[in-house]
Structures
1.
Amino acid sequence: MFNQTTAPLAIAAMLGAAIPAHADDAPLTVAMHYTQEQAAPLIACLEDYDVDGIGAEYRQITYGDYLQTVLTGRLAGQAPDIYNVYSIWAAQMVDNGVLDPVPDDLAGFVRDGYSTGTVDAATIDGTLWGVPTEVSVYMLVSNMALLREAGFDAPPTTWDGLREVAQAVATRNAQGRTETAGFAFGQSSSGAGLVHPFYALLYSEGGKVYSDDRSEALFDSPEALAALEREAGLVRDGIADLSVDAYDFPAGGIGMIVMANWLESEIRAGFGDRFDEDVAVSQIPMGDDWRTLQYAFFMGVDSGSDRKDAAWALVEHLNTPRDGGLSCMGEMLGQLGALTASTADNAAGEAPDAFTAPFVAALEDGRAISQPNVMQASEIEGLMAQAFERAMAGEASSEAALEDLDREVEDILFEFY
Amino acid sequence: MRSRDFDPGGGGAAPWVFVSPLIAFALIFFVVPLGFSVYLSFTRWNPLGTPSWVGLKQFEYLLTRDDAFWRSVGNTFVFAFGFVALGVPLSLGLAFVFSRSRGKAVWRSIYYLPQLTNIVAIAYLWQFVLDDRYGIINRALGLTGLRGPDWLTDPVMAMVSVVLVMIWYDAGKNMLVFSAALEAVDSEIYDAATLDGAGAWRTLRSVTLPMIRPAFIFVTITSFITGMGFFALILAMTGGGPRGATEVTALYTYTMAFEDLRMGRASAGALILFVIIGVLSLLQFRALRERERRT
């Protein structure tokens, strides 16, 4: 019979049996959001990996569930050894001691071999927390067939030019609904379609989102107001329509969109043979001093891993060029059509095509500024999207929406900084 | 049989053995999670770290500083009342019509079908139907030269849309409850009413509705509770948008917990919602019972 002493012990024993401990020779686990098919080159490298009898295995966690899965996995003692961290999750993971700082020798490899803006994405309070992997940059992507039809041979380079072209391209049906959008925001549930172009405009205006010590939000700055007014003005003046989805671009229904490079495969599929002729990538239309946004993923190691040294060795192995060729990670990203900020991989890989070259140039020229790494970044971007949408829909002036946003974000920052 | 052969109240292990699975289930899935949630509501915790005690601060923030929380409470009431006010009479009407129609089993099965469908699939289906630009409804209206409403991008219409889809999804279930109640009414009572000269409306008002009042109370209260706490359809259909117009409190707390990783504040929000639902359900139950006693 169970008594008061034996019952808790029995429960503990059952729980212990349910959570297997890491064996020293168990494979190191690399958790990423890419599907098995997308990660095939990397998985091949992991299958070949064997150092002192320690191998490696791949675990896919879907992007939308990544952070939650990591959290519950850690609670259950099932954390992977290596993460692929989206930079805006990083501050929280670091603050809670989830990540291990990059060892000094590997830090040198990163700082010497990756563009500065991307290294910033993996850096929090001066400490480097991983090796950058995939990078995304925002640029103006144009459907040149629609622009030419409207009488324009080149994408605009200024905001006034963008308004003029967008107005000329846009068409509406008899009920007044948009048929072809001159310009569109890539609407999504995360709000990134409004927020990420805002960063590009804000950076081009010379503004920033937070004070250097992260204690203050700067949404009440003239630069933020100017950036939002540019976005909201498009909707208010009927030039852009919030009901238009980013995936209307591959379908040929959008003239211009400020978008990241990762949409390339969808656009290629949509445009088919006419891709090279009809799709143009150009600068953010903010004149000569334009800037844009980049965000990055980086490979980090779980601070609770009982084989951190081995895990870092695997991270280095996966990101180091092989005999002058691409690294395992570089090969995978290349096949995906994704960007890497690794100088060695960019040098070893094929020259970028006409679509990709402007994105790479923005990284190399230092025009792509990293998304800020703050605590609760995802929550803050959700608030930004709602505030911007209110201003665009005319429910609030841009000033009022930004003032409210500034207060809400400072409430969050106050908790942590 | 003498009482000593089986005496559930008379001590011994047997009764406890029989109810132990139920007690274990309740402990594991209700009591412990609820207790943990109550504890968390007094803490600040993201699951990466350890909870830190903050007393009543989460409640204070939600109730005094968080405009979005109050907006979500307002949306919750609009959604729940819309669902009950339109959904319950509709279910009753369907049950009444089908109880007198041929092939009633077929009709009931058809109207129950949405209940057998995955709620996310339903949300995506209706997104296609209601899409402002490409949706079937607005395309059909366009053919007649009419501009359809902005079903999912206008704040008011988005709430109307989710309420209507929720009713479409749930009407079949409530219709079955009403159907069972209607079938249980003795036909001789209707015969007597007819002999007394009662018409169809008088029979419905004075015979049918009083006879099925227990089912009416059950459906009203359970629909209200469902409406106050339901969010899966809204999550998949509008994500709470546009601009928070369909963000109900359950969805707001879900987002807080699993996207913003604010488990403490989300628990506090969930407890406030729990209290609101509990108090209103009690009041509703008492009011309906009171009316039943008076009649």
Note: The radius of gyration of chain B is 24 Å.
2.
Amino acid sequence: MMTHFGLTRERLEIADSSRVFFERKKRARILTFILLGGLAVLFFFFCGSGFIHIPFLDVLAIMFKQTSENQLWQDVVFNIRLPRILGSMLIGGILAGCGTLFQAVLLNPLASPFTLGISSGAAFGGSLALYLGFQNPVFLAFFWGLVSLMIVILLGGTRKTLHPTRLILSGVIVSSIFSAGISFLKYLFKEEVSSVLFWIMGSLAGLTWQNITLLLPFSVILFIMLGLVSDSLNILCLGDDQALQLGLNPVFIRLFTLVISSFAIAAAVSIGGVIGFVGLIVPHLFRILIGPDHRLLLPISIIGGALLLLVADNIVRAFFQLEIPVGVITTLLGGPFFCFLLVKSEGQKY
Amino acid sequence: MLSPGKIGRTKILMSYSLDNLSFYYLPKKPIIKNLHLELERGCSYVLLGTNGSGKTTFLRILNGLLKPVFGSIRLNDTDLHSYKRSKIAQLVSFVPQNYTVHFPFTVYETVLMGRYPYKANFSDYSQKDHQTTLSILEKTGLSELAYKKITEISGGEKQRVALARSLCQQTPILLLDEPFSNLDIHYSLFFIRLFKDLVQKGSLVVTSVHDLIMAPLLADKVLFFEPQGISLYTDKEKAFQPEILKRVFKVNIHFPHLDDGKQWFSSINAMTNNQPSPSSHVVNQHEGLSKF
């Protein structure tokens, strides 16, 4: 009887091999809504929590009516907490989205937004700005982030191709050169090294509305671009020849996505520093949950990354006595979690 | 509907025309020299030659992945390199020797990607695409594997997925680079049968093969790749003669003759008629398990 039952079930599954595909799609959609809901609730929750506690309903009142009896509360929410909360969400989304993108474009599950040295370049630029005594290190950091990507592309691309392994190799080289540059600057700094360190470790403390205006356009462009190319990224995973054979130019997609995303990454790093593991862990986590289809994976990764960094940064901000750089927290928690994922998904080849 | 046989016969039937084509990676070592060749639809070409004799290079030139150094290659009377890649993708599909997918897509998703050339930009795969994928999976005996991750199936299964993906592309021209290298004899014969059917319906199939048992079964015409050049044999009975095989491969090879004096591979239909029936395997497996 059992055998018979098992057989009919198998027959049914053979009759509709696409079922899992559509089920997975449904699951991804449900997960997206859950994550979006969580993001919205936590957004308002974190606006209220911190050194000055503001009740949840009052936060809503401040947000939607724009007026409040308590002028202090309004100032705290709008001028101090809101930019930082928005910033953490945007940076989290950028890092996770670009992590997913880089893993697909570089055909390497170990890739992260920092693989191609954009982060090291930006960190070097920022350190340089601090050393030279600039008030605002963001723009120099942004500029050097883009410079490093340009060097990587020039090194990694030959006349007609843009080979993933070459790109990664040149990324590693450029990255270590800039790291050495940072070390040199640290050495020159001597006593004042803490300001550089704090920033290199990744921290969102002191995010301003001015930072958000830099971040917002690049992240919007990035998210739209990711939506447009998500389908092509699937094809790219078949390898360059197969992609070309299916009518997709892999070199163009690679170059186009790398350039657009590097702006967003440079902006994110120049504002928040090098916040580790968000761009590596989030894509892997959701790839295990919903599979590698980038049309589902990219939006979920972006929302998941935003949620992760929002939570991490606000725990650092609201619940710890002294401000720990959030990059340290994400790496401290992310590293072991990543080990857990690796053990858990034993047998799954990437 | 116009049938290719009736109107503009020569023009529609002629698929590839290579004119004075030369190709080399290094000028000192020419791989293809001054090749004049026409490849017609409704015909199966088999490429034979030693390792590194340029079979894969030739397939990549036909696919437009490589540009000839001299000479021209025309597809349906138009220069191949003046086509858009997306247009070529609707005409030519290519199964490479090594098929690696870099992330754990399911077999279903991988085969579905064969519909990419027909999909409008930024839109989802249509119902028809899913239907085509399902029917191809069933046709190639992959329905049971549809859920499996491509990174977790065996080499032969992966090769079947690669072939299914290229069939899903539904192109009139198929270029296959050693498609049977990992397949068992059952599925090799099964796919040979399938490609022969396609050829009869007017497709052009160009295959590089090392297996000299499979090659005569699949071939209508044979291209030998030798250091001194490429030679075309339009009659496969003449191509698989010991002296020619000895010249190409430096090995003595004799095919047995049938009683009526014909080559054994003339009886291809008898050999490849048995279609695989995946469901029967399932039944056996379950019955076998239930005994324990």
Note: Chain B has twelve helices and ten strands.
